[in-house]
Amino acid sequence: MLLKHKTALITGAASARGLGKATAKLFADHGARIAILDLNDEAARAAAADLPGEGHIGLPCDVTSKPQCDAAAKTAIDAFGHIDILVNNAGITQPLKLMQIEPQNYEAVTDVNLRGTLYMAQALIPHMRDRKTGTIVNISSVSAQRGGGIFGGPHYSAAKAGVLGLTKAMARELAPEGIRANAVCPGFIATDITEGKLTDEMMEQILAGIPMARAGAASDVAGCCLFLASDLSTYVTGSEVDVNGGSLI
Ligand code: NAD
């Protein structure tokens, strides 16, 4: 039980096969109470009800809206009394090439992945500051490190690279106040974001670039989030942790 008496707020965690839901489940297995945030109220509530243990809540929140982030954070703090852990997981991809990116594509992808990460952190930092404790885990991507991915598009790589910079800035500014911030960079993980978008040939090509020769599972990423959220990592801040089967070796 690594998260007994802890509480966590996880964005984009309603997707049944997603990284956020797997992380929520693992945190709940370790004793945490979870606030699942996602675009759809009903889906968020159903996902929370599906977690092991009691007292979890599901809340509607579009992370691109600062007022919605502030409202959801307040509701979660009121419900649990405190929030120890924030996982900024909500994200979208668009499989475009450089010259196909229209202003609205750029806005949509950077808004969810990068702006949402800032807004949700801003919604909880004053609370964490008051308590002089807290840990923030931001989900970036191998696409940020490689300058490209399979589905994401260059604007996705840019947004996720922005998440890495933002994480380090958060870590630097918040470290003296007892708050840690780290990023997780998943490689190719089988979730709804990847589902049905790959031909056999593409799959073969992807696996050829992964020394472990398999797609990651959502639970692989959840385990890393658990480490960064728990007291196993009390001296870890500003880091980017790769969960990619060796893709960058
Ligand atoms: P997913 O599509 O299964 O889940 C993403 C969730 O984010 C969904 O529940 C969706 O409703 C939610 N969401 C979208 N826009 C939102 C918004 N504006 N406000 C709140 N919620 C919103 O995807 P996933 O694979 O579980 O991805 C989770 C995170 O991991 C994302 O940030 C993604 O970029 C990142 N990632 C995934 C992979 C992979 O291979 N699956 C690899 C690297 C990084």
Would you kindly provide a written description of the structure presented here, covering whatever features stand out?
With 249 residues, this protein is α/β, with parallel strands linked by helices. The chain has one domain (7-243): NAD(P)-binding Rossmann-like Domain (Rossmann fold). 45% of the residues lie in helices and 15% in strands. The protein contains 8 helices and 7 strands; from the N terminus they run βαβαβαβαβααβααβ. It has helices spanning 19-29, 41-49, 66-80, 103-131, 142-146, 154-174, 200-208, 218-229, and strands spanning 7-11, 33-38, 57-60, 85-88, 134-139, 179-186, 240-243. α1 (19-29) crosses α8, α3 packs parallel to α4 and α4 (103-131) packs parallel to α6. The two termini are 33 Å apart. The mean pLDDT is 96. The structure holds nicotinamide-adenine-dinucleotide. The site of nicotinamide-adenine-dinucleotide has 28 residues, from α1 and α4. This is 3-ketoacyl-ACP reductase. Pfam families: adh_short_C2 (PF13561). InterPro entries: NAD(P)-bd_dom_sf, Sc_DH/Rdtase_CS, SDR_fam. One of its GO terms (molecular function) is oxidoreductase activity, acting on the CH-OH group of donors, NAD or NADP as acceptor.
General shape: globular
Strand order of the largest sheet: 3-2-1-4-5-6-7
Secondary-structure element order, N to C: EHEHEHEHEHHEHHE
The radius of gyration over CA amounts to 17 Å
Distance between the termini: 33 Å
Bin the strand percentage.
Answer: 5-15%
CATH architecture: 3-Layer(aba) Sandwich
Average the pLDDT over all residues and give the rounded result: 96
CATH superfamily: NAD(P)-binding Rossmann-like Domain
Determine the number of helices (DSSP H or I, runs of at least 4 residues): 8
- Which ligands occur here? nicotinamide-adenine-dinucleotide
CATH class categorisation: Alpha Beta
Proportion of residues in helical segments: 40-55%
Number of domain units: 1
- Characterize the biggest β-sheet: 7 strands, parallel
Annotated CATH topology: Rossmann fold
Which residues sit in consecutive blocks of at least 5 with pLDDT less than 50?
A: none
User: What class, by secondary structure content?
Assistant: alpha/beta
Q: How many E-type strands?
A: 7
GO biological process, one term: fatty acid elongation
Family: Belongs to the short-chain dehydrogenases/reductases (SDR) family.
Organism: Antarctobacter heliothermus
Protein name: 3-ketoacyl-ACP reductase
